[in-house]
Design goal:
Blueprint lengths: L1 H11 L4 E3 L1 H4 L5 H7 L3 H8 L9 E2 L27 E4 L3 H17 L2 H21 L4 H11 L7 H7 L2
Parallel strand pairs: 1-3
Antiparallel strand pairs: 2-3
Helix pairs in contact: 3-4, 5-6, 5-7
């Protein structure tokens, strides 16, 4: 039983890759894509927004640790922050900050045990991303206010996680 649980936890122990604005525009270049662990074609697709899952991009939405192989990931964007397939662009920080705010509101609405089970890992993963790119956070907060940006959560996610 313990070994089976550990296999699941190991598969879910991913961490998103943060891509700076300078690297984002160059993801289609072979050396930049290779450094990120993807092909130049996939790097170009990521850069073009073809794999945007809401609050992050995904290297392979058909090979998610949260879904059966070959099936489209059904938990995006809720679990993106704890997935090794996640690629976060600095330009997505406003959505990341809004997701973090949403998670903190859920802390007030749920018991500590439920909040930890549902949101704890994502909150810690977001905190790591924010620590890694702290210099970009003030501009992201300004963009939220100036552009009236709203969190893009699917209705299904809102009804599932807001209870």
């Amino acid at each position: 039983m313990n070994r089976a649980q550990q296999l699941v936890f190991d598969r879910l122990a991913g961490k998103p890759v943060l891509v700076t604005p300078q690297a984002q525009s160059r993801l289609g270049e072979p050396e930049i894509a290779q450094a990120m662990g993807v092909s130049a074609e996939l790097g170009a697709a990521l850069s073009a927004g073809e794999l945007d899952m809401g609050v992050s991009n995904c290297k392979d939405p058909l090979d998610s640790p949260h879904s059966s192989p070959g099936k489209l990931c059904h938990v995006a964007p809720a679990m993106c922050m704890v997935c090794a397939n996640a690629v976060v662009f600095v330009t997505q920080l406003p959505q990341q900050l809004l997701l973090s705010d949403h998670i903190e509101r859920m802390r007030l609405a749920q018991t500590p045990t439920v909040w930890e089970a549902v949101w704890g890992r994502q909150a810690r993963a977001l905190a790591e991303v924010f620590e890694e790119c702290a210099e970009h956070l003030p501009a992201a907060r300004r963009a939220i206010e100036e552009q009236d940006i709203r969190l893009n959560l699917s209705l299904g996610m809102r009804t599932e996680y807001d209870r």
